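Encode chain A's predicted structure.
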Amino acid sequence: MKIATYNVNGVNGRLPVLLRWLAEAAPDIVCLQELKAPDERFPIDAIRAAGYDAIWHGQKSWNGVAILSRVGSIQETRRGLPGDPDDSHSRYIEAAVNGLLIGGLYLPNGNPRPGPKFDYKLRWFDRLIDHTAGLMASGLPVMLAGDFNVMPTERDVYKPERWTDDALFAPEVRAAYVRLLDQGWTDALRSLHPDETIYTFWDYFRNAFARDAGLRIDHLLLSPTLSERLVRAEVDSHVRGWEKTSDHAPVWIELAEPRRRRPVRQVEETKNGRTAPRTEAGTGTAPARPRRARGRRSEQQP
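Encoded structure for chain A:
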């Protein structure tokens, strides 16, 4: 199963790019961020024509998240993070899809730092960590996917010395990301590319993409039951070079199918006229026969 996250930077303005990438990459499930469209302007007809169902949480001009699927129905479980009833930003959506629980998110940028926007980012991160603790404790196969607006380490940013005062690289934000991972999440891309210079975002200015002056801020985090199934994790960086494209590139992973136990045979089979023993569940071997206890032969009476 192929699952992706993509900050489209305006779903209607970048719709031709999104549809082209969906046709080329054929992901099974996609989390989108920065829709920049109210609910009534989400292009659901075009998405369905491309073979995907969708749920979305829109907002005029800013934010907005969605989950797309071509592998079964999407059962929405949450819209917005708990912990702040006054938060009107459309930044989180959660759903059960094809046996997975997926949280699609767009974490606040937080600039300028310091300031109220940075304070909001830290509070939002705390709310996310509180919520995901429950997801992790559930033991379900869970994925968090989206634009986290965090470069976790110096390896995830071009010229890190230039970003020391930025809200995406602030020590408090990076520490919050570590606290999140410490719950048991696996950073899918970094786990398979531990030493590689790999980015997911390149600014429109100063020819950043051509110079590969990028950032890694789009992440897919996996619970333990999903991390065991991880086989690939890549960035479709070539999409960033398309005309009228987003400043982000799609990031995707492939998961192996979950292992299935072999069923117990319900009926004994016969072979050469003799009854064959039934196999144990999942082993393919016959159950061991119990041994008879052997006692000493009694002495004969004279």
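Residues 60 and 293 are 79 Å apart (CA to CA).
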